[in-house]
Design brief:
alpha/beta; 4 helices; 5-stranded mixed β-sheet
Length: about 120
């Protein structure tokens, strides 16, 4: 059996790692919608693309079947300017927040309420 964590960490193909990470983030958002998750990267344009793709996956009548897996959870608010998505209910710290280096949210990772920090 393949060790998935080892494979993802050592996979040098971005075409495999990034889509898997995006699907994993949306799965976490559905599984634990009221726990904030911070995703960071080196590039603002890259983060914007990840944010847009997460929104596509979370669409109610979109091409993905996310709502079949999590029928009781919906997107409650979005903020395209700051790349933030709230799922289930609006809260102080969003379910998914996307940031890049130098945007001033680096201290967010030290916040005790942040449950998951992902670096793409």
């Amino acid at each position: 059996m393949i060790n998935l964590t080892y494979w993802l960490c050592h996979c040098h193909r971005v075409q495999v790692r990034v889509p898997f990470a995006i699907f994993f983030l949306t799965w976490l958002a559905g599984k634990r919608p009221n726990e904030p998750k911070l995703t960071g990267s080196h590039s603002n344009a890259f983060i914007r693309g990840v944010y847009d793709e997460c929104l596509r996956i979370l669409e109610t009548n979109g091409e993905y079947l996310w709502h079949d897996v999590f029928p009781m959870v919906n997107v409650s608010s979005t903020n395209a300017k700051d790349c933030r998505i709230d799922v289930d209910k609006r809260q102080r710290f969003e379910t998914l927040e996307f940031t890049s280096i130098g945007t001033g949210t680096e201290d967010y990772t030290e916040h005790p309420i942040c449950s998951t920090v992902t670096t793409l």
